[in-house]
Design a protein that fits this description.
This protein has three helices and no strands. It is mainly alpha-helical. The N and C termini lie far apart (30 Å).
């Protein structure tokens, strides 16, 4: 049981990190738009999250 929970948590963390990386790449491409819309740089946004 514990092993299944650990594997589940690891897969969730991996998925989240991949999402953050892909979103970070998108944010870098649209950095100016993101700055105007959010008012902060994408990097500081990720730090808050």
């Amino acid at each position: 049981m514990k092993v299944k929970i650990t594997v589940l948590l690891l897969s969730v963390l991996l998925t989240l990190s991949i999402l953050v990386l892909s979103l970070g790449a998108l944010a870098q491409e649209n950095q100016e738009l993101t700055k105007v819309r959010v008012g902060v740089t994408p990097y500081s946004m990720w730090q808050i999250w």
